[in-house]
Amino acid sequence: MRRRTLLAGALAAAPVAAGAATGCSAGGASSRNSGGRTTISYGMWDPLQVAGMEKIIKAFQEEHPRISVNVQVTPFTSYWTTLKTAMRGGSAPDVFWMNAVNLQLYASEGVLRPLDPFIERDGFDMGVHPEELLRMYTYEGTHYGMPKDFDTIGLWYNKELFDKAGIKYPDESWTWDTVRDAAAELTDPRAGVHGIAAEMSRQYTYYNTIAQAGGYVIRDGRSGFGDPRTIDGLRFWTDLIDRGHSPSQSAMTDTRGRQLYLSEKVAMNYDLSAMASQMYAEPAIKDHGGVAVLPEGRRRATTIHGLAAAISGKSPNAEAAWQFVKFLGSRKAAEIQAREGVTISSYEGTQDAWVKSMPEFDLKVFTDMLDYAVPYPASKHTAVWENLQPQLLGGPFTGKGGIEGASRTLARQMDLALEQEK
Question: What totals of helices (H) and strands (E) does the chain contain, helices first?
Fold first, then answer.
């Protein structure tokens, strides 16, 4: 399990002291043109958010006419590889999207610029963003990312299939038992319809039920997959597969639960708030799709994740980059993003426009769940132990083998990986 640091050698970022917040360059080629304008680059991966981001950039440039922003869109499948290569070559974007999975690794390698000197100098109130997101983008007590949005998970359902089965729509009274009973009644082999998609998907499915069972994925540098409550959270899904109330895992390898829901082959599916616009674009789902808060297990919980804007530790345009990042974290930018209806803005009190952007769906359920949202689990090398999960949990999710033994094996191997982080 020993390894060289992910970005070793190539990213000897200049030390960032408090004085860097005064606008001094971190070195490298200048991006000021002869007219005195500064051009900064902004890396992102979601093409659906480009239109909204262009509106945000236009509003930013109206306030900062001497700063231009050049958007660079890279598909998520190659985003992180491209970013690492760009960092090694000294050509990384000045500002780029960061997620919780990678934050600790990038921050520990010194390739992200700490935001605290800027925050303190300008008196920026980070408390306008959810505490869970701020915690995700803080490393060793220092902020490294400006939250821009968040996702929670909801229970999407097909009203037409519910009506046909004579079942009341899901609401806040639903529990795990209600889901199991409804999934059984909604499963119709003749029509090729299953009650629910029990997809093996961390953020969308079992991270939520693990928390609802009172278990955990990682705590104090140790795996939670050996905890009986964590195993109960996994068993919720494997039982649905074993009983035939969900498509097989192999069926969902080629066609994900989301596609099965959109094609009306499953009556229920756990999915992201960010997928609301995709649901809305499907005429049948827009007409008779619905969404509710996640059913309750031993407790209520939903996984919260969100994106943040980070500044490259080697950006020669630190001050301009900060001005843009600060604007991205402002109410004005959040309101523009909310009106676009793609994702939920993280700035407090700006979510209403997003909620109202698709009135056919009760999108308020996603913001209501903030009260009991659980942060996406992460460590310095999150990808290492997350990659173990499909290998070791795959058997039970395909209906072969027991989930308890697989989960305990995962806990042991995950602990070995976490030990290497120290």
Answer: 20, 17
Per-residue three-class SS string for 262-317: HCCCEEEEEEEHHHHHHHHCCHHHHHHEEEECCCECCCCCEEEECCEEEEECCCCC
Give the whole-angstrom CA distance, residue 373 versus residue 132. 8
Query: What is the identity of the amino acid at 121?
Result: R
Q: Which two tokens stand for residue 119?
A: 């925050």
Task: Say how many C-beta atoms besides its own lie within 10 A of residue 400's C-beta.
Answer: 11
CA dihedral 152, 157, 158, 159 (to 10 degrees): -110
Pairing of strands 302-304, 67-73: unpaired
Q: What is the DSSP letter of 117?
A: H
In this structure, what are the phi and psi dihedrals at residue 27, rounded to the nearest 5 degrees? 100, 175
* Contact of 362 with 291, CB cutoff 8 Å: yes
The residue to which tokens 């519910």 are assigned: 162
What pLDDT digit, counting tens, does each position of 103-128 carry? 999 999 999 999 999 999 999 999 99
pLDDT digits (tens, 9 = 90+) for 193-250: 999 999 999 999 999 999 999 999 999 999 999 999 999 999 999 999 999 999 988 8
Instruction: Report which DSSP code applies to 151.
Output: B
**pTM of this structure:** 0.89
pLDDT at 27: 33
Closest CA to 114 of 84, 82, 137: 137
